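Hi R.,

Here's the chain you asked about this morning:
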Amino acid sequence: MFVQEEKIFAGKVLRLHVCTMEGAEWLEEVPEDTTVEKLKERCLKHCLPGSLEDPKTVTHHKLIHATSEKVLTDTKTVLEENIQDRDVLLLIKKRAPPPLPKMADVSAEEKRKQEQKAPDKDAILKATANLPSRNVDRTVAHHNMRDFQTELRKILVSLIEVAQKLLALNPDAVELFKKANAMLDEDEEDRVDEIALRQLTEMGFPESRAVKALRLNHMSVTQAMEWLIEHADDPAVDAPLPGQTPSEATAEAGASSAEATAGPSSEAGGEEAKDELTEIFKKIRRKREFRPDPRAVIALMEMGFDEKEVVDALRVNNNQQNAACEWLLGDRKPSPEDLDKGIDTNSPLFQAILENPVVQLGLTNPKTLLAFEDMLENPLNSTQWMNDPETGPVMLQISRIFQTLNRT
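And the predicted structure, written out as tokens:
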């Protein structure tokens, strides 16, 4: 018996289930060494008789493996495409490429794009040529803001002097300032901005850790949050802050000395009491010394500025790094010395502030003096004093008077 050689060495025959988009289905039996192109021709003969007369028919169709959604390559064999027995193939006609747009359509599209395009500088100038000019200089606006801060500092400096004189006339001045020192120490150790603390605890930070972060960062929520993130893995993050026993002892000693000096005795005793009050004022002021933002100091010194210049710039600009940098690069006005100068006591603004009943009453309260001192040296704490039931009304009246007279 004679058997053809190709029959002896023929590959495995696979039965494939072929489908078309029109719904036709049939079985194709092909050896596994059949190319995808040959398989595609057999499929086209079955579903589209006579279509192979056009040589482009084969290239305009493609076979897709239904399970893997892979487009089969014409030059590869069924075996190389890893097609298995009883797999499902899809015969699909390729989508024809979109026709090229006509020149008229291109012109219309370009015209539409031009209509939607934002106007350039020349078009804006042409359209606004007849409008009245209003020159807004951003540098002037920045200086106006700086002038506002400077003016407010001057007001606080002068109000501190008035408050000190009024409180010194009080028969219980020594006792008042003894309480003021205690209040100041309590403020340094215990007072925390409740709104800032709530913001941090709502973010998921522990309350004790949030309190520590706020105290270390002058009650700034942003800086406190950065500190908490940076020290999240620090083993000593929950360690208590160092005590302030030396300063407390100094304050108590000064207050006790003043109390011992003051008395219903002679005029000389009254003079000594005034001297003691002056010393207490100085101690209070020293407790409120300006503390520059360490991050801003490092950043500005890395630019090449001297440390003293950097501290002066941050003090003038309320610890604002960008404003301090502009001050260092500019005319450096106001100078650090100007910060300790008060407002003209004969000016309408200062007279209006002093004539306000709420301000007059507040100036007799030691807490108001402490608030002024705190805001003078730590402007970031002004929000806390604005929310304080005792000092808030005074600050509100000062702000209203300033804004009213500034508009006239």
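Confidence is low (pLDDT under 50) at residues 136-146, 243-269.

Let me know if you need anything else.
M.
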